[in-house]
């Protein structure tokens, strides 16, 4: 080999898939979370946002408040008053381009400080989860990490972790809002009760703005019947869940691509929403209905509007069965993602289980829990959708500052209008 260019053939050469993942990691917004359900605090770290994004702490804290609401939430929500404390990355009310660290204190920590100490502490105070709960991560997690009980599994697998996601998602929402893109959710099903019509954007906005949240359904009559489902589950010691719908409004055509399998917008959204606790299925647009329909009933005809009225011209659709995504790319309609939630795994009338220590038959452990979390899960899913879209916006339009990003974004929107 020629001198001056040494190469060790023993070193592993990254495969194309790994190289692509590394490329995406460098060119997209990234976030991570840390913390346990009854630990001292929850942490969110988000990086890759441009400098100059206005940060509204009141908005962030309302997002955290929204995640705590809903008929059927458990006693933990009476203890916690979630507030975001910004540790880094924001100064004088705007992002500065560096990683943003957020902290949400767990008020319940004072009741667990001796039970879950960082140092060895007193083993006699440890509060074991002695028998795994069916449907939860308890058994699989204990087997994976070789834990003698499921306490540590519960602490991290708990949906309390989604608090950190909502905090990070609020930052992503604020970036998207600067470009005119909004993300909200509403509840379309609880148990056996489902809303039998589509919601319009104004209804979703009005529902999200309420200061008293029942179940987050835009239709009052349907919501009253949903409430009955929760009450029945409460009377019988059971749990119930359902379906939420996340709508991303004013998303321009062109986010995502068909060019590579792992860059498709629908795939990325399905991945991000499916990662939420208790979500067992994700639907884009009318995906479930489409599977049992003819093509003529499913696909959205293409029209062109505005030429005669003097208004900005654009391609339009009479309906949005595709959920705003075709071929892995946003098509200019509202992006619609539904999450299907299994019922909460912790039951007041526990299912059968076995003890970790002696394998004897017993009832599953009981931890203070919720009866229904559909509205809260919808808010967490908003955060995941917002983070995903913000990452693709950053990837497509770039910009180290919001001014630069918005200039690129506005130029692209003009290009679409002149197409």
Offer a quick outline of the entry.
The chain has 419 residues and is α+β, with helices and mostly antiparallel strands. It has a single domain (28-285, 322-417), classed as Chorismate synthase, AroC fold (4-Layer Sandwich). The protein contains 13 helices and 17 strands.
Key attributes of the depicted protein:
419 residues; alpha+beta; Chorismate synthase, AroC fold; five-stranded antiparallel beta sheet; four-stranded antiparallel beta sheet; globular
How is the topology of this model organized?
Layout: H1 16-27, E1 30-34, E2 41-47, H2 57-68, H3 76-79, E3 85-88, E4 90-91, E5 94-95, E6 100-105, H4 138-145, H5 151-157, H6 162-177, E7 182-190, E8 193-194, H7 201-208, H8 220-235, E9 242-249, H9 265-274, E10 279-284, H10 287-290, H11 295-298, E11 303-305, E12 314-316, E13 325-326, E14 329-330, E15 335-341, E16 352-354, E17 361-363, H12 374-397, H13 402-417
Antiparallel strand pairs: 1-2, 2-6, 3-6, 4-5, 7-8, 7-9, 9-15, 10-15, 11-12, 13-14, 16-17
Helix pairs in contact: 2-6, 2-12, 6-12, 9-12
């Amino acid at each position: 080999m020629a001198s001056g260019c040494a190469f060790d053939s023993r070193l592993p050469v990254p495969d194309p898939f790994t190289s692509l993942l590394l490329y995406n990691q460098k060119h997209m917004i990234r976030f991570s979370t840390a913390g346990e359900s009854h630990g001292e605090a929850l942490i969110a770290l988000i990086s890759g946002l441009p400098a100059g994004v206005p940060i509204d702490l009141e908005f962030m804290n309302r997002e955290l408040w929204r995640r705590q609401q809903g008929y059927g939430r458990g006693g933990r929500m009476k203890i916690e008053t979630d507030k975001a404390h910004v540790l880094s990355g924001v100064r004088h009310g705007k992002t500065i381009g560096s990683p943003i660290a957020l902290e949400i204190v767990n008020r319940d920590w004072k009741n667990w400080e001796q039970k879950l100490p960082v140092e060895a502490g007193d083993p006699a105070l440890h509060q074991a989860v002695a028998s795994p709960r069916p449907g939860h991560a308890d058994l699989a997690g204990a087997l994976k990490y070789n834990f003698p009980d499921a306490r540590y599994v519960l602490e991290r697998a708990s949906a309390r972790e989604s608090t950190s996601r909502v905090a990070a998602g609020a930052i992503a929402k604020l970036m998207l809002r600067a470009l005119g893109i909004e993300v909200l959710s509403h509840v379309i099903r609880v148990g056996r009760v489902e809303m039998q019509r589509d919601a319009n954007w104004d209804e979703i906005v009005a529902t999200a703005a309420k200061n008293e949240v029942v179940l987050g359904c835009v239709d009052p009559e349907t919501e009253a019947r949903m409430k009955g489902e929760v009450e029945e589950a409460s009377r019988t010691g059971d749990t119930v869940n359902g379906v939420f719908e996340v709508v991303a409004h004013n998303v321009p055509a062109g986010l995502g691509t068909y060019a590579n399998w792992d860059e498709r917008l629908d795939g990325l959204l399905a991945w991000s929403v499916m990662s939420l606790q208790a979500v067992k299925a994700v639907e884009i647009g009318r995906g479930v209905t489409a599977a049992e329909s003819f093509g003529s009933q499913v696909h959205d005809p293409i029209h062109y509007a505005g030429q005669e009225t003097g208004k900005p011209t654009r391609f339009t659709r009479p309906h949005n069965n595709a959920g705003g995504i075709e071929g892995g790319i946003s098509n200019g309609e509202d992006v619609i993602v539904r999450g299907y939630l299994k019922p909460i795994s912790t039951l007041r009338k526990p299912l059968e289980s076995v003890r970790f220590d002696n394998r004897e038959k017993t009832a599953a452990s009981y931890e203070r829990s919720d009866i229904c979390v559909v509205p809260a899960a919808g808010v967490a899913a908003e955060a995941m959708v917002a983070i995903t879209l913000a990452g693709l916006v950053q990837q497509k339009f770039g910009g180290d500052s919001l001014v630069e990003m918005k200039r690129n974004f506005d130029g692209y929107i003009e290009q679409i209008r002149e197409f």
